[in-house]
Amino acid sequence: MSVAFRRESDDEHMEPKFELPIPPGPNWVTARGLRLTREKVEALEAVDTADMEEEAGKKHKRVLRYWRTRLATAELRPVAEPQAVAFGTRVTYRLNRQEKTVVLVGDDEADPHAGRISFSSPLARAMMDAEVGEKVDFAGKVEAIEIVAIAVVDED
Fold it and tell me: Which of 33, 50, 55, 67 satisfies CB 3.0 to 4.6 Å to 109 for a cystine?
């Protein structure tokens, strides 16, 4: 029988398990984001892994290492000024004749369905430093986004 058709075990064909990827760039957080990260670490540390199956325990430890790293590298940003779009601001903008509102937050705090986008997202980068009434380019379109309102977010 050809070696190509022989299979020693399932283990040799399993995908290796890697650490959770850390987003590139600075780990900026809002006060809310820092609190949520601390709570996440505390909750993960409180879990007793002794009774877990081996793979579940390894996965839990990977997740805990990720969140400990994120907590250790967190950079709490000062509250922004509402004159221009910046990290930690709530921005109302008009795109394709539709008005939307988002809050610019850190990578781990981002939740697009809840209107929270990462400061490193393409949309946030396009709007950064723009002022009310200003139009900015986005997705290859000139003046695609109009900034309607900017407000400071102080949730903590």
Answer: 33
pLDDT digits (tens, 9 = 90+) for 55-90: 888 899 999 999 999 999 999 998 888 899 999 999
Distance of CA 94 to the CA centre of its chain: 23
Contact criterion met (CB below 8 Å) for 34 and 76 = yes
- Phi then psi for residue 152, to 5 deg, are -80, 140
- For strand 116-118 and strand 89-95, is the pairing parallel, antiparallel, or unpaired? unpaired
Q: 44: which 2 tokens?
A: 């993960």
- pTM of this structure: 0.80
Q: Which two tokens stand for residue 64?
A: 């805990």
Task: Tell me the CATH number for domain 89-152.
Answer: 3.10.50.30
Kindly state the DSSP code that residue 81 receives in the 8-state scheme: P
Q: Domain segments of the chain: what residues?
A: 19-76, 89-152
DSSP state of 120: T
